[in-house]
Design goal:
By secondary structure, the protein is mostly beta strands. 14% of the residues lie in helices and 39% in strands. The strands form six sheets. Strands 1, 5, 10, 11, 14, 15, 17, 20, 21, 23, 25 and 26 form a twelve-stranded mixed beta sheet that branches.
Length: 542
């Protein structure tokens, strides 16, 4: 009986995992002279057409609206991006992906007593597998994609409350048959929730292109898709079938796309396994920090990709990143037979990873001698290529934020309609007055300070009006207190308050009604490694 019970629990666990994720599988692989290009954009934002560059915006605090750049009668949202491949190059493969959160048509949040109530207004009405695509020189055409994952089947709260989904479609022939490849691509009618939902709503699309070009070096390129909900436990994905050519100097690039990463919330990471040292090494570059990799942006190596409309720096919960893997790890991977492993972690900002691609550029001596071939898997082969996914429990410092759902489901007495309601507590306790930082010499106002002054103030009950230096933000009050104690060990006094809009605990280390004065203090405090990400929040100033 005990054996039967254990087996039943094991099978039940597998069933739950399958409902909340989709194993990553290899879509195809190519061995060609050529390269890759990735473009995309977000279809939900704060404004229907204006770019959003403020990096301190949270998508769960923003009343999300459909982006709509064409105002066409046949589309309810749309955004564009421009594709450019070298002259003389030819398309080998092109895949269109789209993803969004879609639990309801429109969501609202209102204060109710000492609670914020999230209400879903109306069941979803659009088909998530249907979008409209306009290619250069053409008109809109309907695209029906393959469903990779739909959160409607989920069982954990972080999935069911936001219903994330991902679809894709191989559009290689569609692009190859078009007379014009380079130009503007518009994707419209991505089904998503407008307004507010618990955790925030987001939506976007990505076009991943592989092209052949005799002027480029030989490359091994392979793509994968799936779906993983990354929370505080972390996820490790072992791409066991990835094999870089052995004993060669290589250059490896990694392309990933995810949903629901916020620009301000820290402690989400992607790490690559370094076989030689037998450890994971976090990835970063000039636009993506190692502790905030998924930061609501679209980037190519060290630059923001802006050849799109709207070209928001903050894509409010949608990420595309193409990054170069460090050279020392490339060499180790090339001589390793255990495949390619990535680790995704977070302690503050849940997110959903759905696409990964690798490309390995071989050295010149290899490209001169190797035969150039390409392969595409059959459906049967692909189904056998199930990538191992391991749940990883991370042990982090107290300063890191826990990804725990701070939203409480309302009691039956409070439910007046059938739609789902979720409640967030509004803090009632009155914190002590934060310590005012001593005056320092002021300098001329720069653009960053202007944005701080012009930003809409945040309303926080029982907190004095002014500008506050925020050293860290936590979803757990216990972790906020631990962080405050750590600062106390450095003789830095702090105060903790809870922000009603997101229910997070903010650790302030100084405040003043003079933003110019406080900004100079902030710049000096940032010299401390633990305070390098400190920022200023405007509170209760009318």
């Amino acid at each position: 009986m005990r054996l039967f019970y254990t087996s039943l629990c094991f099978l039940f666990g597998i069933s739950l995992y399958a409902q909340n994720s989709k194993e990553f599988t290899r879509v195809n692989e190519f061995y060609i002279r050529g390269n890759t290009q990735v473009i995309g954009n977000n279809n939900l934002s704060k404004h229907k057409s204006k770019p959003i560059d403020a990096t301190d915006e949270f998508n769960d605090e923003t009343k999300m609206k459909y982006v709509d750049i064409d105002d066409a009668i046949t589309t309810y949202n749309s955004s564009s991006a421009n594709l450019t491949i070298p002259e003389g190059a030819s398309i080998k493969y092109a895949a269109l992906y789209w993803t969004a959160t879609y639990p309801t048509e429109k969501g609202t949040k209102v204060a109710k007593g000492n609670r914020y109530v999230y209400k879903q207004n109306g069941d979803p009405t659009h088909d998530v597998q249907e979008v409209q695509l306009k290619i250069p020189g053409g008109s809109y055409i309907p695209i029906r994609g393959d469903l990779i994952y739909d959160g409607k089947q989920g069982t954990v709260k972080g999935v069911t409350s936001s219903r994330p989904y991902t679809c894709y479609k191989d559009i290689t022939n569609l692009i190859k048959d078009n007379q014009t490849i380079n130009g503007t691509y518009i994707v419209a009618n991505i089904a998503a929730t407008q307004g507010y939902i618990s955790g925030g709503s987001s939506a976007g699309w990505m076009l991943y292109v592989i092209y052949e070009n005799d002027k480029d070096p030989l490359q091994y390129i392979t793509t994968y898709n799936g779906f993983n909900h990354v929370n505080k436990k972390g996820v490790e994905i072992n791409f066991g079938n990835f094999k870089a050519p052995e004993k060669t100097e290589t250059k490896t690039a990694l392309t990933v796309s995810a949903l629901e990463g916020d620009s301000t919330l820290k402690k989400d990471q992607i790490a690559i396994y370094y076989p030689e040292e037998q450890k994971y090494v976090t990835l970063d570059n000039g636009v993506r920090a190692s502790d905030n990799f998924f930061n609501s942006s679209i980037t190519i190596d060290n630059t923001y990709y802006t050849d799109r409309t709207p070209n928001s720096k903050n894509t409010l919960g949608f990420d595309i990143a193409k990054v170069t893997v460090p050279n020392e790890i490339n060499t180790s991977i090339a001589n390793n037979n255990s495949g390619f492993k990535l680790q995704f972690k977070t302690r503050a900002d849940r997110y959903y990873i759905y696409f990964v691609a690798f490309q390995t550029t071989l050295n010149k001596s290899t490209t001169d001698t190797e035969a150039i071939t390409s392969t595409t898997e059959t459906k049967e082969e692909k189904e056998e290529e199930i990538i191992e996914v391991v749940e990883v429990v991370t042990l982090e410092e107290p300063r890191e934020k826990e990804v725990t759902e701070v939203v409480e489901i309302s009691t039956p007495k409070e439910i007046e309609v059938v739609e789902e309601k979720e409640e967030v507590a509004i803090p009632q306790e009155k914190p002590e007055e934060p310590k005012i930082t001593p005056k320092e010499e002021t300098t001329s106002i720069d653009d960053t300070l202007v944005k701080i002054i012009d930003k809409k103030p945040t309303k926080v009950p029982d907190v004095l009006r002014g500008y506050y230096i925020i050293s860290n933000v936590f979803s757990s009050k216990t972790n906020a207190e631990k962080w405050a104690n750590k600062l106390k060990g450095k003789n830095i006094q702090s105060n903790i308050f809870r922000r009603p809009e997101n229910n997070f605990y903010y650790v302030s280390i100084g405040n003043n009604e003079d933003p110019v004065l406080l900004y100079e203090v902030l710049k000096k405090m940032r010299k401390d490694q633990d305070l390098k990400d400190a920022w200023i929040l405007k509170i209760n100033i009318q």
